[in-house]
# Entry
Amino acid sequence: IETRLGGGPLSGRHVIVTSGPTHEPIDPVRYIANRSSGAQGSAIAAALRDLGARVSFVTGPATAAPPQGVDVIAVETAQQMLDAVETALPADAAVFAAAVADWRVTGAAAQKMKKGPAGLPQLALAENPDILAAVSAKGADRPSLVVGFAAETENVIEHATAKRLRKGCDWIVANDVSEGTGIMGGTENAVTLISADGAEAWPRDSKAAVARKLAQRIADHLSAGQA
Ligand code: CTP
Ligand code: CA
# Structure
């Protein structure tokens, strides 16, 4: 049931959400990627939509379906994701939930690479553009709220706090994806919201509930800024 007609705290607002992995081709049939279902990103886009936002949903090849009622921009590589985000600007807020591949293969083969007597392929890597850092560093075009994610396997708060400063974003949603938490690929998430005010641990809940809470925080922040 749609409750956003004519209202919602984010009506008239534009929010960009990145989601899913990126795929960096090695050859036409192989790629490098991070593990990401896209479930948390899809849930965030749906929650922002439910509060009335216009959502540009820039997604890599995720397994989770994109939500209805958002503008879906499907991409494959990190470079394409950056281009799509820049095209979607300006925005009031941007949430970077994608698991972007840190490296791409330079000189990806145009034809399928074959096994053979020539031995193992040598892959040369180059670092991908950092989409979150690039948007955080924008001037007039910078969204007033930029939110990054930090999936860590150890020293979560420490790494995520450093990441917030390094990237220049306003908030980091940090989570512990180490083995045994069951968060990677699961339906639940346990996150800590890191801002200039410090770290706030949220109780473990469904990815949908975490998304609703984050969307509400974004709405509160934007309306406070307007006052
Ligand atoms: N991110 C991005 N573009 C990249 C890499 C990361 O936009 N090329 C964003 C992610 O979407 C996430 C945040 O940056 O919101 C943190 O990603 P993460 O991989 O944890 O950060 P990195 O700086 O790549 O650090 P690490 O070495 O821990 O992977
Ligand atoms: Ca990374």
In short: The first helix runs from residue 39 to 50. DSSP finds five helices and 14 strands in the chain.
